[in-house]
Amino acid sequence: MTEYFPEIKAPIAYEGPESTNPLAFRYYDKDRVIAGKTMAEHLRFAVAYWHTYKGEGTDVFGAGPYDRPWNHAATPLEIAEKTLDANFEFMTKLGVDYYCFHDRDIAPEGATFAESADNLKHIIDLAEKKQKETGLKLLWGTANLFSNPRYMSGGATNPNANITAYAAAQVKLAMDATKQLDGENYVFWGGREGYETLLNTNLKQEREQLAAFLHMAVGYAKKIGFTGQFLIEPKPCEPTKHQYDRDVATVLGFLREFDLYDYFKMNIEANHATLAGHTFEHELLIASQAGKLGSVDANRGDVMLGWDTDQFPSDIYETTAAMMIIVQQGGLGSGGLNFDAKVRRQSIDQLDLFYAHIGAMDVFARGLIIADKIISDGALEANRIERYSSWQSGVGADILAGRADLASIEAAVRAGSEPSIRSGRQEYLENLINRYI
Ligand code: XUL
Ligand code: CO
Which of 47, 138, 142 to mutate to test the pocket of ligand 1 (most atoms within 8 A of CB)? Predict the structure, then answer.
């Protein structure tokens, strides 16, 4: 069988923080136990099929400079077979247990729906065999309801019911594929579920269409016995101007409004959070506190650019903050850290894929190590507990327990004295974090 990454002779090894080898881990030591679990169990890294193998380095101004050997063959199906081989070779050499795919990046769309279905089935059968041979696993599958022009006005929220039906049929097959590969989750990302202008949009009906679509998916999962977790991936815009799954809070409200709350968790993407005007950790925490943090698309944006740059994570502060939330909620369960990230356009070598993933894995491993120290030291939490200590008794406890009323509070405040204020000590706490980093 062709070897696609011949420069990598053996799986990437852990060599420790002093190593200067760019093809070694300095922090990710997969069997090292931290807070009762191995690093591999905490982090559950996944490779994103679309960016890693199918990305060509295109941008809106120019063609793709990457020349990947697996993307050369006589037919689209042969290319898909070669790409599958490249995936399993890459994962094995990198030492990542999971991958994620869209139906249309793992298998080519055919001339008809039936042909697309056959292509998908062919590749999924091969992937099943490869998973059995290697022990590698599927974190999640999803359907691409955004690339084909038929979906320009939406999949679930299309004004044409026949296009929504097409999308539903496609989701059915993508769920079948995910189940066949024992995928641990299934993702819904609604890049075209939204609107460009309200002048032509029936907003009320489109939201109802989306809810009905998701209810059909829930029903089908029950029917086939798919027990993986359903995940919604919020994003405010791009490609559509206004997307219905804007951010975590919006999605939680939508799920409640349409009786879908129990069936979905969130897949939080770092760069989607920042596009929504939030930090990554804000979105993680809002989801986590609702018991809805299911999985993470681990990437980052660029503070100078206002779009979804999907860069590989490299910021220790961000990964530390993220890992604090993930560790404190007891892990991601069936979810993981999927690198929904692409190398920069000028990073044209196959080895750049390794540098990118190794760096990203290391920066999350380092974030985990630091987060564990901060949590076990307890200083940050002690400060927070003290800051809210007045809520433990008296009027604070009464308000929280619903025992207080405005009239009795007014009488007490009138009889009392001016409450004191105290420092939030932000700089002190920032210095504290820097002691660990
Ligand atoms: C797009 C994006 C998607 C989803 C899966 O911004 O993040 O790749 O992760 O459809
Ligand atoms: Co994503």
Answer: 142
For the chain (437 residues), the mean pLDDT of every run of 10, in chain order, is 96 98 98 98 98 97 98 98 98 98 98 98 99 98 98 98 99 99 99 98 98 99 98 98 98 99 98 98 98 98 96 98 98 98 98 98 98 97 97 97 96 97 97 97
Whole-angstrom Cα distance, residue 342 to residue 48? Answer: 9
3-state secondary structure 16-79: CCCCCCCCCECCCCCCCEECCEEHHHHHCEEEEHHHHHHCCCCECCECCCCCCHHHCCCCHHHH
* Homologous superfamily (CATH) for 33-377: Divalent-metal-dependent TIM barrel enzymes (3.20.20.150)
Cα 90 → chain centroid: 20
233 lines ligand 1 (CB under 6 A): yes
> Is the CB of 189 inside a 6 Å radius of any atom of ligand 1?
yes
- Please confirm, yes or no, whether 102 is among the known catalytic residues: yes
Extract the tokens encoding 389.
């200590």
Residue at 57: amino acid letter: G
Residue nearest to atom 3 of ligand 1 (CA): 189
pTM exceeds 0.90 for this model: yes
Q: Nearest ligand, CA of residue 308?
A: 1
CA–CA dist 97, 18 (Å, integer) = 26
Catalytic residue of the set 29, 97, 105, 340: 105
Instruction: Say how far apart CA 276 and CA 301 lie, in whole Å.
Output: 12
**Which atom of ligand 1 is nearest to 269's Cα?**
7
Instruction: Round to whole Å and give the CA distance between 283 and 129.
Output: 37
Sign of torsion over alpha carbons 324, 234, 98, 357: negative
Domain segments of the chain: what residues? 33-377, 390-436
Cβ neighbours of 106 (radius 10 Å): 28
Locate tokens 């050369």: which residue? 72
